[in-house]
Each structure stands twice: as C-alpha cells, then as structure tokens.
Specification:
Number of helices of chain B: 4
Distance between the termini of chain B: 39 Å
Number of helices of chain A: 10
CATH topology of the largest domain in chain A: Fumarate Reductase Iron-sulfur Protein, Chain B, domain 2
Strand order of the largest sheet of chain A: 2-1-5-3-4
Radius of gyration of chain A: 21 Å
Structural class of chain B: mainly alpha
Number of strands of chain A: 7
Chains: A alpha+beta, B mainly alpha, C mainly alpha
Largest sheet of chain B: none
Helix content of chain A: 25-40%
Helix content of chain B: over 70%
Oligomer: heterotrimer
Shape of chain A: elongated
Distance between the termini of chain A: 54 Å
Largest sheet of chain A: 5 strands, mixed
CATH architecture of the largest domain in chain A: Orthogonal Bundle
Strand content of chain A: 5-15%
C-alpha cells in the first residue's frame, strides 16, 4: 500500500500447503511494481518450491481459473494487485473455501458443478435444426433479466464467499441458481417447470438470506442475489398458481 | 419435508412478517399512548373488556408471532446448530404451539 | 471484527436481523408470561406495571423496542428485495433500515 515501497522490499507470504488438514508455509517473495498475486504464486513455484500446486490459465482476467482465497476473500489472483491487498507487506493465500482441498491452493470444484446440474442449469432444447430460428427480443423484460446474469464463467468465487453454502451443505449456491435464473428467462427453454421445482426449497433459492457476499465479490460484477430474488418470486407464483410448482 | 412444504414455510414466514409489521406498529402506538396517558391497570383492562376488537387483534398478533418466530428459529437451528430433519421440525412445531398457547393465554388473561 | 469477506453492509444487516430475531424470540415468552399475571387479577397487573417503571426495566424495554424496530426495518428491507423488481437503490435500504431503528429507539426513549 505504501507507494514508496512498490517495486522494492519483500513480501511475507503465508501459503496453504497440504490437504484439508494442512498448514500455512511462509515464503519471502521479492516485491515488484504492478505485481499481481498470481505473479507472487508463480514466483514461489518457479524459484522457491516447485512442489506448490495451483491453478491458472489465461492470466488476463477472462477464465476465472486462478480464483483463490487472498487475505480471507475469494478473488482472481491475476486481477488482484499486491499493492491493493498486502497490508504491511503480508499476504495469506489459500484455496477457495467451501470446497474440499485437493492440494495446496487447488480446490475440488466437483461439488460446485454437481450443484449446477442439480439446479438444472442446462438448456433444454425444444426445437430442431429443421425449425426456423427462435425470435428473441433483446429488449424484452425476460431477455434483459437473462442478459444481466448470463456472463457467469463458473469461477466459484461467489460459492466460496457464500456463508449459507458453508452453513447448509445442501444449498445449491449462488452460481448454480444464477444460471438457473437465466434459463428460466430463456423463452426457448423447455424445462421451466422442472427447473423451478429443482431450485425451490431449503436447499434452493429459499435458503438465500440476501447476505450479498456473492454480489460484492463477483469479478464479473454480476448479482446472483438479484437472480435468486427473481427465482423466489417465480417459485412463489408457481406455488400459488399450481403450475410448475415443486412436488 | 417436501420441497413444496419448504416453500410454503418460506411463504408463511413472509406473510406473517408483513402482518406483524402492521400489528407491531399498532401495538407500539397503543403502548406509548397508554403510558403517556398514565393509564392504570384498571383503566387498561376496562378498555380491553369493552371491545371485541382488542382481543381479536391481539389473538391474531400472538398467532402470527408464534408462527413467524418458530419458522425463524428453525432456520437458525439448521444453519448454526446443524439441527435438521424430523426432530428439528417437530421442535419447531413445539415452539410454535408453546408461543401460541402462551400468547393466547395472555390475551384471555387481559380480555376475560 | 467480521472476517474480511463478511465486512460489508448487507452482511451486517443480516447479522442484526438474525440477532434481533433470536433475542425477540427469547423475550416473547417472558412478555406473554408477564401479561398472563393479569389472570390473577388487576392488582397483580398493577403491581407489574409499577415494577415496570423501575429504571432498569425501562432501559430493557428501550433495548427491546430498538431490537424490534431493527428487526422490523430489516424485515421490510428483505420483503422489498425479494418481492419488488430489482433496482440498484435497494442496496441503500440497509442504511435506511438502520436509520429507522435508531430513530425508533430515540422516539421511544423520549416518550416513555
């Protein structure tokens, strides 16, 4: 944070090593100008300890693979400048929360994607290639709702940040529910009823307490809270009308 | 509990919340009025006895509060005490009944 | 204070809402019981009303009214977020709810 220090000195970096019951290991990493947290992790793996495991891919803020816990918050490390987060030259790095640890900074995202499927986060087609193109008005209310939530790339930051996910093991989580909402608003989709049933109940949208950590931390500035609120309304409508209601 | 029942509980929570919001405002205004006017127990009881509206209002109030509180505590128990399932649901029903009985008893006490 | 990922307004709003809800759920039986003393006659209610004029009880009442106002305001905020079409200004509702609770506490302190 001290600009006189940027580009000089050292960082004290505590990195999680091992599995679910591992420990933090401290490394001293030279500080550089415009350094990102991903740069720090890469330096450790290349020059200090080649056994360190971590994920990354594009390193330019597009893929979401480098998501990790940085000083207690889930973030994309390639888009986190060290100057912004390293207070007193210290960093604490861990794998994403709410997921089992594979090793070191790598979390097992299997459960995250399983919940995506449980929420019926997949498009259910109703037309074939022989049918004319679907006409979807981009200015329609439904499409605007879907478009506001469609840019999710499944990085898991919202899921890692959500306390309801931590407190309620069955909770589908913000990403899965957000995706379900885009499909509920997709006029071409054919599974509306089943999807509304899938996202209802104590493990679904009704467990959201509007904590909004997901919205605060989403690197793509999406608002899963907004999507989940939409699902609550649609779900209630289904319950009251008897149409598309949960079993 | 079926998903439909869980959604119904959530809806009941919101419905009682909206009712309680109105009831609470009426209740607070009434209490403040009674205190400012320096009403004695005799005066309060006399006013309540002379109308059907007050006991009816407070009976509904007590029932709504019992339902709302029980559903809320069920959620807190599930999330912070990891207490879920049949036992927890039965306990929630128990809490609702206990609160309703205590509340209605108080209404009868003041109105009868 | 709160862990880093939790240090934002919507989270504080949740915590206040939950804590006040649990506190109220614990207070309510006591409240109903106290009113039930009226079952034993007007003199008991009078004695209770006089006891309730003691400063420590008045302070506790004030705390309860503030908790109630906080829970009510937070609850109305949730109803708005869940049932009204989403608008960006709804995020400011947390501040509005907090202001309402403080105001309610002040008003009660003055009129009681």
């Amino acid at each position: 944070m001290d600009s006189a220090q940027a580009g000089s000195g050292e960082l004290a970096v505590d990195v999680w090593r091992g599995g679910d019951d591992g420990r933090y290991q401290r490394f001293a990493v030279p500080r550089r100008a415009s350094q990102t947290v991903l740069d720090v992790v890469t330096h450790i793996q290349r020059f200090l300890d080649p056994t360190l495991s971590y994920r990354f891919a594009c390193r330019v803020g597009m893929c979401g693979s480098c998501a990790m816990t940085v000083n207690g918050k889930p973030r994309w490390t390639c888009r986190t400048h060290v100057d912004k987060v390293a207070r007193d030259g210290r960093l604490t790095l861990g794998p994403l929360a709410n997921m089992p640890v594979v090793r070191d900074l790598v979390a097992d995202m299997g459960g995250f994607f399983d919940k995506w499927a449980l929420a019926r986060g997949q498009f259910a087609p109703t037309a074939t290639r022989a049918d004319p193109f679907a006409v979807v008005d981009p200015a329609s209310a439904a499409r605007r709702e879907a478009d506001a939530a469609i840019e999710c790339i499944g990085c898991g930051v919202c899921y890692a940040a959500c306390d309801v996910v931590a407190w309620n093991p069955a909770y589908l989580g913000p990403a899965a529910l957000n995706r379900a909402w885009t499909l509920v608003n997709d006029v071409r989709d054919g599974a509306r009823g089943k999807r509304l049933a899938a996202v209802a109940g104590d493990a679904g949208c009704h467990a959201c307490h509007t904590l909004m950590s997901c919205t605060e931390l989403c690197p793509k500035a999406l608002s899963p809270t907004r999507s989940i609120a939409g699902l609550k309304r649609e779900s209630l409508r289904a319950l009251l009308s008897g149409k598309d209601a949960a079993p | 509990m079926s998903r439909r029942a869980e959604v119904a509980l959530w809806a009941a929570q919101r419905l009682t919340a909206a009712l309680l919001a109105a009831f609470v405002l009426v209740h607070l205004a009434t209490i403040v009025y009674a205190v400012r006017a320096g009403l004695s127990a005799a005066a309060i009881l006399a006013r309540v006895h002379s109308s059907l509206a007050w006991p009816a209002f407070y009976a509904l109030f007590a029932l709504a509060a019992a339902i709302h509180g029980a559903i809320g505590l069920r959620t807190v128990a599930a999330e912070w005490l990891s207490w879920r399932g049949r036992g927890a649901d039965a306990a929630a029903v128990g809490v609702a009944i206990a609160l309703a009985v205590a509340g209605l008893r108080a209404v009868v006490a003041v109105a009868a | 204070m709160l862990r880093p990922a939790r240090n934002h307004p919507a989270w504080w709003a949740f915590l206040v809402h939950r804590a006040s809800g649990v506190a109220l759920a614990l207070f309510l039986p006591a409240h109903f019981w106290a009113l039930g003393t009226a079952l034993e006659g007007e003199a008991r209610l009078d004695a209770f009303l006089r006891w309730a004029d003691r400063p420590v009880v008045v302070a506790a009442e004030w705390a309860l009214v503030t908790l109630l106002a906080a829970h009510l305001a937070g609850g109305l905020r949730l109803l708005a977020l869940e049932f009204l079409p989403w608008r960006e200004w709804q995020k400011a509702l947390a501040a509005v709810a907090a202001a309402f609770a403080v105001l309610a506490g002040l008003v009660f302190a003055m009129v009681r």
